[in-house]
Amino acid sequence: MTALESLPLAVTRWLTLAIVLAGFSQGALGFGFPFIATPVVAMAVDMRTAVIIILLPTLATVAVTLVTSGPLGPVLKRFWMMPVYATLGALVGTWVFVAAPDAPYQLLLALSIVIYLNLDRFTRGEWPLIKRHERAFAPIAGTVAGLFEGTANVAAPPLIIYYLALGLGPALMVQAMQICFLVGKMSQFAVLTLHGGVTSAQWLATLPLCVVAVAAGFAGVRSVYFCSTFFNSPLSYISRRMSEPPTNSPLT
Questions:
Q1: Per the domain annotation, does 248 fall within a domain?
Q2: How far apart are CA 71 and CA 219, in angstroms?
Q3: The pTM is what?
Q4: Which of 52, 53, 188, 239 fits a 20 to 30 Å CA distance from 152?
Q5: What pLDDT score does 110 carry?
Q6: Does residue 1 belong to any structural domain of this protein?
Q7: How far apart are CA 159 and CA 180, in angstroms?
Q8: Which of 203, 38, 166, 56 is nearest to 113 (CA)?
């Protein structure tokens, strides 16, 4: 990993801008931090360095999102197994990332982005098979998301496809995804620390970016409520609904 303190000033500013944009998106929509930060940061540094730089800020923003999203009981009652599958996938994916550092992970990241940008095609129709066999498809969605987390640093596309196929509401979907993101990043952190050669000094060097990410996240949350107050637009309404805790859930 390239030492953060040795990076040129222009690169440091670019990394900070990426963290701000990703944190703002996370606060406004309830997800999206690694999806935005990873490709932007990887434009300036190698993929391994990008993953290490982004990991703790992602954990920080995910934790804040979960803490402020409302009670987690309903979503855990229904999807308690998803974090287990995501953990297993992330452990395997990160192990591969460490064992094969020269693999073209940027291509996998590009594939993740293409899938994400075409999610409307995957989720436009009904998915009765997944609805009827929710638990049968859960290991596939959770494990693949974990594998993507550990290798491409982006776990959202498989989870979004799965949860939208089940007809999950925005607030519950955000909570369900954040739980998988949390355990995935914790697994990634453990493997990179124990077997990937990442030192405590390298992790500590990214802590200032955690502060930047959390501050940008809160700014994103405030922007949603500002827009919903002064502008009655569909985008502000959707963003606000994504940030609200679940209410009147059929699972309660």
A1: no
A2: 22
A3: 0.82
A4: 239
A5: 84
A6: no
A7: 9
A8: 38
